[in-house]
Amino acid sequence: MTIPRIRHRVLLGVAGGGLAVLLAACGGGGNGGSSDTSTGNGTSNGSGTKVTAELSDFHIKLSTEKFKPGTYTFTAKNTGSHDHALEIEGSGAENRSKTLEPGQSTTLTVTLKSGSYEVYCPVDGHKDRGMKTDITVGGSPAPSGNTDTSPGNGY
Ligand SMILES: [Cu+2]
User: Fold this and answer.
1) What is the pLDDT of residues 70-93, one digit of tens each?
2) Omega prior to 74 cis, within 30 of 0
3) Where do the record's region annotations for Disordered lie (predicted)?
């Protein structure tokens, strides 16, 4: 009666990963982007698509890496033990949050256009220590072959 628990763990892990991929795919495909302009859906203060940015020592983790042109509200959380801030720079625009002490969070509303942006921490030297990530907005199809136009998907 020795049930190999490790196997169950592995299976769960795989299932979880597959689910995450499915959810991500659904989120990307189902977001038409044009359906919420006419309906007043309660967000009246100009807030856009919500994105979470975790600022740790020394890494930036975004809740999404897919961006379309539009307005985004980044919620920056400092989960590290140093002061951090969030800066989003590109397409001639520069947006910087206030500097956050450990445990603090803030929001930063940014309008993104098609193009490349650099997301980084402007606090001394943190960018060079790894607090930097590039995002691409648009437009152009992803090179990964991730098709959201496949017609055979019954969902
Ligand atoms: Cu930092």
Assistant:
1) 999 999 999 999 999 999 999 899
2) no
3) 133-155
